[in-house]
Amino acid sequence: MKKIQQGFTLIELMIVVAIVGILAAVALPAYQDYTVRAKVSEGLVMAEAIKAGVAESFAADGLAGVKTYAKQVNDTPPASKYVSKIELDDKTGVITVTYNETNVGTIAAGSTIVLTPYLNAGGGADPIKLGAAAAGDTGTVDWACASETNTNAENRGLADAAKGTLKARFAPAECK
């Protein structure tokens, strides 16, 4: 009579454990980066309202409107569990999102993402930084997002966008 195998051999079990170990070694760091990116994206969501406010203020009253709006934002800066503060530069309209490293995870203290506004006047002209716009200039406001790199912004024609300090691996794709 033939003997039927009753379970797994020790070698088969060791192979399975080794495969699971290798997968875990690769997956855990990727998962940690993913969770940090999810927390970082909260700061960009919070900045959306400020971006709209800058564009509206500029459309209504130029850089003087941006300066007035910046005072309102900076007097009571938004913050959350993951965002320490959001600051708005009153001369350039640049938004700086500073993250709370204690709650976000494996980021450096004071890590930032910077959103730089550009005025796109249309007609084939290159976008200019909002802070360099002349009185009476009009157009749509476009935003460059940058972590420690600003490659995506430069690829979109938004040259010299201010850089933040957050490592690019933790930043959303638009901010790398």
Describe the structure.
This protein has helices spanning 10-75, 101-104, 151-155; strands spanning 83-88, 95-99, 112-120, 128-129, 140-146. It has 176 residues and is an alpha+beta fold. It has one domain (10-175): Glycoprotein, Type 4 Pilin (2-Layer Sandwich). A hairpin with a 6-residue loop joins strand 1 and strand 2 (95-99). It is 43% helix and 16% strand. The N and C termini lie far apart (67 Å). Strands 1, 2, 3, 4 and 5 form a five-stranded antiparallel sheet that branches. It is elongated. The chain has three helices and five strands, in the order H-E-E-H-E-E-E-H.
Could you give the topology of this structure?
Layout: H1 10-75, E1 83-88, E2 95-99, H2 101-104, E3 112-120, E4 128-129, E5 140-146, H3 151-155
Antiparallel strand pairs: 1-2, 2-3, 3-4, 3-5
Quote the average pLDDT. Answer: 91
Total beta strand runs: 5
Judging from the principal axes of the Cα atoms, what is the shape? elongated
Enter the CATH topology name.
Answer: Glycoprotein, Type 4 Pilin
CATH top level label:
Alpha Beta
> What structural class should be given to the helix and strand makeup?
alpha+beta
Number of helical runs? 3
Percent of residues in β-strands:
15-25%
